[in-house]
Amino acid sequence: MKIFAILTSLVLWGPFTHCSLAVGQDPSSEFESVSLANPFFAKLSATSRAIVDGKPFRSAVAELADRVEIPIVLDRHIDPSADVKVGQIGPTVFAGIQQVAASRGCVTMPIAGVLLVGRPEWVDGTSEAILSLSAAPESSASAKIDVQWPAATTPSEAIARIATASGKTPPATELPHDLWPAAKWKAISADVATTLVTAQFRHPPRRQGTEPESTAPPASTKRFAVPYRLDANRTSVIAAIRGVDRQSKLKNTGKEIEITATAAAHRAGIAAFLTSQAAKQAANVSLDKANLTLTLQNTAAHEVLSKLAAAAGRACQIEPAAEGPCSQLITMSMQNASLRQLVQEIAQQAGVDIEWTHDTLVVSARVK
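The chain above was modelled as a monomer; its predicted structure follows.
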């Protein structure tokens, strides 16, 4: 697992390549098994440690998710500009995002090839809407589309782009005006994409002081069957689900367990599943196994060093005096190299010194 996590990180980060590992496509169905055999969950389990303090909330979360090319859908009622202060995060992509989210009172839910981040009631309501798409008796899987829009796109314009991408006439109905950040969704169900847009206008936050807790909407009791492929984490995942939904049901289906539970319970179960993977990744990764291939062309040294450090399960600390040299663009190609060798070569080209500690790659100005 450790090697897979390292190579996944390297393969998916733009200029990094590895010739012998087939990571696979994005999940073809948002309801595929919760399993490391599913590339979506494998990506979220990739090793990653980072420090994002001082960055705006949306930027910090997106930076972590971009490392494994998973789009973030952020609840529009969460302030995206609030500064993050959480210290070092990790040891996996999901664990890091979860830690940043929790600092703003948010939860996370991986579903339909995207990662929802927001208030618990919004995340669970949106997850329920997506799960309902496949649960409806008359439903049929909608076509997979690639859709994107630039910054400052309105919700109505986003809906129109989704309709156009799926070969349909854009609806005449106008959604409330808002200006949204750029987005890029690949191989996503057209129905899911539409749901993600319209869900932003459901579950508005309660006004503090005007609605007593007793008037809050009750938790949904709608239940959905989701397959899980579990191993040593079976007990913790089932316990997490039953801790939220005591009426959840289990059915063995060969190598998988089909669990029928509420959206909130599945959120808890998936978090427990991915947390168990984080525990496995917490051990130190080998820096000296020569099994990596790296090709770079005009890539900033600081960007490569940060990503290689994350692949090694460490944060990257670039000292102020080294920031200038680390802006240098690197072009190189190495095969059958270790992480230590790759980092040393980049440091040599950038003219900086590096030091590995148990949890950090320290980059400093070269001593003359």
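Residues 1-30, 211-215 have pLDDT under 50 and may be disordered.
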